Amino acid sequence: DQQVKQNSPSLSVQEGRISILNCDYTNSMFDYFLWYKKYPAEGPTFLISISSIKDKNEDGRFTVFLNKSAKHLSLHIVPSQPGDSAVYFCAASEGGSEKLVFGKGTKLTVNP
Amino acid sequence: KAGVTQTPRYLIKTRGQQVTLSCSPISGHRSVSWYQQTPGQGLQFLFEYFSETQRNKGNFPGRFSGRQFSNSRSEMNVSTLELGDSALYLCASSPETGGVQPQHFGDGTRLSIL
Questions:
Q1: Could B107 and A41 be called an inter-chain contact, meaning their C-beta atoms sit closer than 8 Å?
Q2: Strand A106-111 with A10-14, pairing
Q3: Is residue A50 scored above 60 in pLDDT?
Q4: What is the largest CA-CA distance in chain B?
Q5: Is the CB of B99 less than 8 angstroms away from the CB of A105?
């Protein structure tokens, strides 16, 4: 049973436009959420995180939104750049645990 | 600051053999976690070590084991290898307990079972 779901396997956007990646979760005990970016042949790179006490966190071009009632989070990238093309993973943990539960990823392609 | 280092990067083994993978965390990081990535199952948590003790364990058989040394370096061992163990094995480290610190990943060890 997948506790973290990324329902879109792929997303294609034009350079300069907004990329919105979505993630849903089922475990209401999750209280910390992270987004990672992964290039081929490399490990995941941490992008941004959010605690369940917040509903928004920004870092430069990246913003994560959390809707606890809907058990949904999203990552916005504005403006999108070709170098953002990668697989994006959503992850969650509960109660201070180091155990991360990952979604299966969304492959983002930013076209020049 | 050096990142998480995993060795070797690539490994080929045959069924029934055993394998040991190594992970050196970022300097000062005390928690080390291991994950398995496969095309079908995605990234799955194996176990986490802190202060040489296993604190969390995922749903993997006992053939998968690990340990952590006093310098926080960690190894994972897989015995009696099966074809389904072919995967990318990723190690991640974080500074301390609490889960509010993001984990930082190495580039992984690609294990292929023939």
A1: yes
A2: parallel
A3: yes
A4: 40
A5: no
Q: Which residues on chain A are in Cβ contact (under 8 Å) with B93?
A: none
- Residue A83, SS3 per DSSP: helix
Q: Which amino acid is at A48?
A: I
Whole-number Å distance between alpha carbons of A2 and B43? 12
Q: How many CB atoms lie within 10 A of CB B108?
A: 24
- Provide the number of CB pairs (under 8 Å) joining chain A to chain B: 65
Closest of B13, B15, B6, B40 to residue B111, by C-alpha: B13
Inter-chain CB proximity B44 and A102 less than 8 Å: yes
Dist. CA A59–CA B84, nearest whole Å: 39
- State pLDDT tens for residues A52-85: 999 999 999 999 999 999 999 999 999 999 999 9
Q: Is the pLDDT of residue B5 over 90?
A: yes
Q: Contact A101/B45 with Cβ under 8 angstroms?
A: yes
Q: Nearest 5 degrees, angle CA A64-CA A67-CA A71? A: 110
Mean pLDDT of A12-30: 97
Which helix (H) or strand (E) segment holds residue A107: the answer is strand A106-111
Separation CA A72–CA B46 (nearest Å): 25
